[in-house]
């Protein structure tokens, strides 16, 4: 997601699973606009987490979220640390008609 990127593509109504893999020693609160997701896996352990729009990805860890792609639009996905977002730790979810 850092730097030059290709948007994540999804169709309306499509079930999407997305894994955040943190390769740093700092936690990253990852936020998706326009959707809520369920945390379904943390560091290889399946869970049935609550619905949310932001998830904290632990240092050197990974988190998988699942959601149904919603309204047709480009939706921002970014780290909620403003300095990280300002330096490019963001991408977009491009939802198209299914």
Which parts are unreliable, with pLDDT below 50 for 5 consecutive residues or more? none
Q: How many strand segments?
A: 10
Largest sheet: 5 strands, mixed
Mean pLDDT: 94
Percent strand equals: over 45%
* CATH level 4 superfamily: Cupredoxins -  blue copper proteins
Number of domains: 1
Strand order of the largest sheet: 1-10-9-3-7
Shape: globular
Please explain how this structure is put together:
This protein has 1 helix and 10 strands, in the order E-E-E-E-E-E-E-E-E-H-E. The protein is mostly beta strands and 98 residues long. The chain has a 5-stranded mixed sheet. Strands 2, 4, 5, 6 and 8 form a 5-stranded antiparallel sheet that branches. The radius of gyration is 13 Å and the shape is globular.
């Amino acid at each position: 997601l850092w730097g030059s990127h290709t948007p994540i593509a999804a169709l309306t109504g499509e079930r999407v699973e997305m894994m955040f893999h943190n390769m740093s020693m700092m936690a990253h609160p990852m936020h998706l606009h326009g959707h809520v997701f369920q945390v379904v896996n943390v560091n290889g352990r399946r869970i049935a987490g609550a619905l949310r729009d932001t998830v904290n990805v632990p240092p050197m860890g990974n988190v998988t979220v699942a959601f149904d792609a919603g309204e047709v639009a480009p939706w921002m996905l970014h780290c909620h640390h403003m300095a990280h977002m300002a330096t490019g730790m963001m991408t977009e979810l491009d939802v198209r008609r299914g």
